[in-house]
């Protein structure tokens, strides 16, 4: 298949203006965004995206999970579409680019093709996946997971937020539940552009991350039970301090992850301490250990060593422990040909690049199970994301979308 000419570039100013206009919907309190999934703000962002897609000559598809599919027709009615996209929903204190860059980058590809009068054999479909963040309705990547057959639609509809509202009811309420069967679409390929959400590209001075793999993830919820007691009057040797046990377990988590350096990581972000009073020794702690690696054998090893270490610690202290696997997915190896298309595009355009492993989960990780898939990453300042201070440069956004454009259009096959 013919590659796009080296001089073809997207309109970086138009892309940036679109990012800034979308960011006005659901503003955060500190310069970022709070456009959580299935809120009124999410509905408003969807409507703006749809308006832009229709103006670009696309037809809009909508499935029963609210996934949006803006289609630019190809010349071959029998050719499967090339899909490109990410998500418009944000964290409660999210940035302006996480996910959004990938959706609007897909739209910019279509706009640029229109500007240049270029036709492709395969249709191109710009996609917005519902509830990638998983903040309001757990788990993350919920709708792409249903699309890929990882979750049932009924189970997804029953997910509840902190107020007891269900995903299915809220999707209906904001008016973005379609009739199309989820997962019925067949794809020629899928590409996702995303900010790195880590510091590697900026630290190494690279314009582009060519994502070869996605880390696997394991979430183990650990409950340690000791005995509540007065902090002032209970002698040290007589304490059954669940908080101390947790601290010792988390030290082991760090040790276990470091033993598989450089790609394995581990930490606990969710911690509940009971009764959480200043003058009561914790009688119970519940915390979730997040272990990640691009190697499934490493994840299994870390899980097993975590359980052994935790049991040894609590047994020595006279406490009890329970384990529950509350989330996870296997590592992802992205499609060799799609990855090569991304790498070749970066080379052709003269952008510095490096192969990279995604430390975060993305919709592409699920879609990779049903279609050839690859990801493009651009740097973000200080590697900061899931924070209102998340920032990228206009040049980084344009470079990432240029590479996305070339990889997608080459895969969709230009018609001369």
TrEMBL record:
Coiled-coil residue windows: none
Highest taxon above the source species: Bacteria
InterPro entries: Amidase_Cbmase, Bact_exopeptidase_dim_dom, Peptidase_M20, Peptidase_M20_dimer
GO molecular function: hydrolase activity
Record-annotated Peptidase M20 dimerisation domain positions: 215-312
A Pfam cross-reference name: M20_dimer
Matching SUPFAM superfamilies: Bacterial exopeptidase dimerisation domain, Zn-dependent exopeptidases
Record keywords, A-Z: Hydrolase
PANTHER family: ALLANTOATE AMIDOHYDROLASE (PTHR32494:SF5), ALLANTOATE DEIMINASE-RELATED (PTHR32494)
Family: Belongs to the peptidase M20 family.
NCBIfam families, sorted: hydantase, PRK09290.1-3, PRK12891.1
Protein name (database record): Zn-dependent hydrolase
């Amino acid at each position: 298949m013919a590659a796009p000419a080296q001089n073809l570039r997207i309109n970086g100013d138009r892309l940036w203006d679109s990012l800034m206009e979308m960011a006005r919907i659901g503003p955060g309190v500190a310069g970022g965004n709070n456009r959580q999934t299935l809120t009124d703000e999410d509905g408003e962002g969807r409507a703006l995206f749809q308006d832009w897609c229709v103006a670009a000559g696309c037809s809009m598809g909508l499935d029963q999970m609210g996934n949006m599919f803006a289609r630019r027709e190809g010349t071959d009615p029998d050719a499967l579409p090339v899909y490109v996209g990410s998500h418009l929903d944000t964290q409660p204190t999210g940035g302006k680019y996480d996910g959004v860059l990938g959706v609007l980058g897909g739209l910019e590809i279509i706009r640029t093709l229109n500007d240049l009068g270029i036709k492709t054999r395969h249709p191109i479909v710009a996609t917005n996946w519902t509830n990638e963040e998983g903040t309001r309705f757990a788990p993350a990547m919920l709708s792409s997971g249903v699309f890929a057959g990882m979750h049932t639609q009924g189970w997804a509809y029953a997910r509840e937020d902190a107020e007891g509202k269900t995903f299915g009811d809220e999707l209906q309420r904001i008016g973005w539940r379609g009739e199309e069967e989820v997962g019925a679409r067949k794809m020629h390929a899928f590409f996702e552009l995303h900010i790195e959400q880590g510091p590697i590209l900026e630290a190494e001075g690279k314009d582009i991350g060519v994502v070869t793999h996605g880390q696997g993830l394991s979430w183990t919820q650990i409950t340690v039970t000791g005995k509540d007691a007065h902090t002032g009057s209970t002698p040290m040797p007589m304490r059954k301090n669940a908080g101390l046990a947790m601290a010792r377990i988390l030290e082991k988590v760090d040790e276990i992850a470091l033993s598989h350096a450089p790609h394995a990581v581990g930490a606990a972000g969710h911690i509940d301490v009971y009764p959480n009073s200043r003058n009561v020794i914790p009688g119970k702690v519940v915390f979730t250990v997040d272990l990640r690696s691009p190697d499934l054998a490493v994840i299994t090893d870390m899980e097993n060593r975590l359980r052994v270490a935790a049991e040894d610690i609590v047994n020595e202290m006279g406490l009890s422990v329970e384990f529950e696997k509350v989330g996870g997915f296997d590592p992802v190896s992205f499609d060799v040909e799609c990855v090569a298309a991304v790498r070749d595009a970066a080379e052709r355009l003269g952008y510095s690049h490096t192969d990279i492993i995604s430390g975060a989960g993305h919709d592409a990780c699920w879609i990779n199970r049903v279609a050839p898939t690859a990801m493009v990453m651009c740097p973000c300042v200080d590697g900061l994301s899931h924070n209102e201070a998340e920032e990228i440069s206009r040049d980084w956004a344009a470079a990432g979308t240029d590479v996305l454009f070339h990889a997608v259009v080459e895969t969709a096959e230009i018609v001369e």
